[in-house]
Amino acid sequence: MKKIISTSNAPAPIGPYNQAVFASETLYISGQIPLNPETGELVSGDIAAETKMVMQNLKAILTEAGLTFENVVKSSIFLSDMNSFAAVNEVYGTYFDEQTAPARETVEVANLPKFVNVEISMIAIK
């Protein structure tokens, strides 16, 4: 069974996709960018602030689904510049217990939606 998860506390999709989809006991969260859901404006200029906004968007979606970061089993981080890795990793790490953190990959890409510097997607389980 597939259930769509949507919250006004995270940015609305900007294309033909949903914020997240539950398939059985697994939640697939679409990539989130540093878009402030209250203002519709991008957070930019400081990779730490951008990453925090992304993580807050992910948290809002997890909350809407009745989950927390403890339920996350896989993260994918996409960066426009791998030189941002340390700053992104520092912010990202504050949301997880290192002993139970999810599996993850971090990749540098040529471009991201709206030309942002960071996008993160997640998979979580009930």
From TrEMBL:
User: What GO CC terms are in its UniProt record?
Assistant: cytosol
- Which InterPro entries is this protein grouped with? RidA, RutC-like_sf, YjgF/YER057c/UK114
Q: Name one Pfam family in it.
A: Ribonuc_L-PSP
Highest taxon of source: Bacteria
Q: Using the record, list the residue span of the signal peptide; answer none if the entry has no such feature.
A: none
**A GO molecular function held by the record:** deaminase activity
> Sorted alphabetically, which Gene3D superfamilies does this protein's record hold?
RutC-like
State the family named in the UniProt similarity comment for this chain: Belongs to the RutC family.
The protein's name: 2-iminobutanoate/2-iminopropanoate deaminase
- Species this chain originates from: Leeuwenhoekiella polynyae
